[in-house]
Design brief:
The relative contact order is 0.14. The strands form two sheets. Strands 1-2-5-6 form a four-stranded parallel sheet, with helices on both faces. A two-stranded antiparallel ribbon has the order 3-4. It is built from seven helices and six strands; from the N terminus they run αβαβαββααβαβα. The protein is about 35% helix and about 20% strand.
Length: about 180
Amino acid sequence: MLDHIESDLFPVPKEELNFNQIFLMGHSRGGGISIIKAAEDSRIKKLITLASVSSLTSVMPVSEILDTWKQKGVHYIFNSRTKQNMPLYYQLAEDYFANEQRFNVLKCESQLDIPHLIIHGNQDETVSLDSAIELTEISDTAELFVIKDGNHVLGGSHPFPESQLPDHALLAVNKAIDFLS
């Protein structure tokens, strides 16, 4: 996406873009991936993660099922919020194992030299607050913002039928705006 934004194919005129203010935000596993990308790409100037994992191995099913996963080609993880069985195809495991050092979230966090806001609810039922603490402790540039009584989706839901943000999500948005200003 970053390459696309800089290309002539991107539909927004270049004079309307500020390439010195490219910020990245990610939630949960996307937070871990955002940390990896921010460590790899100097175009990213600030980073915000919400309920981020501190390890992508939490994506991988336990080692006992690897053989079955490989044989079937897919393993399903039940999402308790959406009530869906989410497929994880075995190529994910292959890619992870082929790039294990690159996908080390904590190593990437320790290499970051840009401001990083870590937002996490202390009642997160999916990713423990311990992940946020671990990321903060290994970083020289991270700031931890804990949302009291906040869950993994900061009061949101899938789908979100309301017109107003939940209080916890609004806290996160306001903190993010202050951080990016």
